[in-house]
UniProtKB/TrEMBL annotation:
PANTHER family: PLECKSTRIN HOMOLOGY-LIKE DOMAIN FAMILY A MEMBER 1, PLECKSTRIN HOMOLOGY-LIKE DOMAIN, PQ-RICH PROTEIN. It is found in: Cytoplasm. GO terms for biological process: positive regulation of apoptotic process. This is PHLA1 protein. Residues 8-119 form the PH domain. Transmembrane segments: none annotated. The lineage of its organism: Eukaryota, Metazoa, Chordata, Craniata, Vertebrata. InterPro entries: PH-like_dom_sf, PH_domain, PHLA1/2/3. Keywords: Cytoplasm. Gene3D superfamilies: Pleckstrin-homology domain (PH domain)/Phosphotyrosine-binding domain (PTB). It comes from the Eukaryota. Residues 42-60 have a biased composition (Pro residues). Residues 39-61 are annotated as: Disordered.
Length: 145
């Protein structure tokens, strides 16, 4: 996502519940863009566009960075506010649910929801424009035969 030139809308730490048997909360450095959410292990170096002109430390495999693209995201459900945390779930199109938590004042769930809605609106507008262009092209009179 960042490679495609998307600017970061919000950056910070989120806790993600692991898929394993123990379901531990693990801190992830997150970058919210206009295209989706990047989840980066906290010790991982910043993505290429985020780095300054410094020599890069030995990097973990790129597979450790998870991209949750809005095109694959269905909803963001706010599950509960408990103590200092707000717990929410990102539901992916294929049905996978990813649980997160953050401090209530950080508002990650609202920021992710807002960016997802804006992304889906942009996609809908592009689809309507594309359909109209096709209709205009088909309705246009053709030159002499």
């Amino acid at each position: 996502m960042l490679e495609s030139g998307c600017k970061a809308v919000k950056e910070g730490m989120l806790e993600k519940r692991s898929d394993g048997l123990l379901q531990l909360w693990k801190k992830k450095r997150c970058i919210l863009t206009e295209e989706g959410l990047l989840l980066i292990p906290p010790k991982h170096p910043p993505p290429p566009q985020q780095q300054q002109q410094q020599p890069a430390p030995p990097a973990e495999p790129a597979a450790k960075i998870k991209e949750l693209h809005f095109s694959n995201m269905k909803t963001v459900d706010c599950v509960e506010r408990k103590g200092k945390y707000v717990y929410f779930t990102v539901v992916m199109a294929e049905g996978k649910e990813i649980d997160f938590r953050c401090a209530q004042e950080q508002g990650w769930n609202a920021a992710i929801t807002l960016q997802m809605v804006q992304y889906k609106n942009r996609q809908a507008i592009l689809a309507v424009r594309s359909t109209r262009q096709k209709q205009q092209h088909l309705a246009a009179p053709h030159g002499p035969r």
